[in-house]
Amino acid sequence: MAEDDKKDGQELSEDEKLAAEWEAAMEESGDGSDDSVSEDDWAAAMAEAEPSEEGDGQPDNVRAAPMEEFDEVSQPSMDGPAPDLDVILDIPVTISMEVGNTQIAIRNLLQLNQGSVIELDRLAGEPLDVLVNGTLIAHGEVVMVNEKFGIRLTDVISPGERIKRLQK
Length: 168
Hints:
It is found in: Cell membrane; Bacterial flagellum basal body. By secondary structure, the protein is α+β, with helices and mostly antiparallel strands.
């Protein structure tokens, strides 16, 4: 390795040593097939690249990719078959129930301790909001299921109404 660290009688830098190791590794792994690209092939391909004559602010060796055009058959239409929902059915979402909410000043928030009561904007017995990823999808009431809390949906918001609420 000591003789590998010298090139033309000069000590090699760490970067040059690393480059030499990579070059040796690449030569060893090469199988001699036509699929590999030599430096000459690379240089020839770069020489063939035409410089940009437009003053678009891009370097000369950067060209815009051509836009692909799709025929009408490949574009989805509303009349065609429904999209495959199987791809999204296993995506996890967060579902939460909101009893109510209120706004208080930070001064009052800092004074809260065990036993404090916070008044909410909901009346007792009023249905809870059911939220999926923060979006209201239903209303329901609290029930007990095997010693755990559950919620019985009493009103499900229609998809059209959900979209209207999102646009507000």
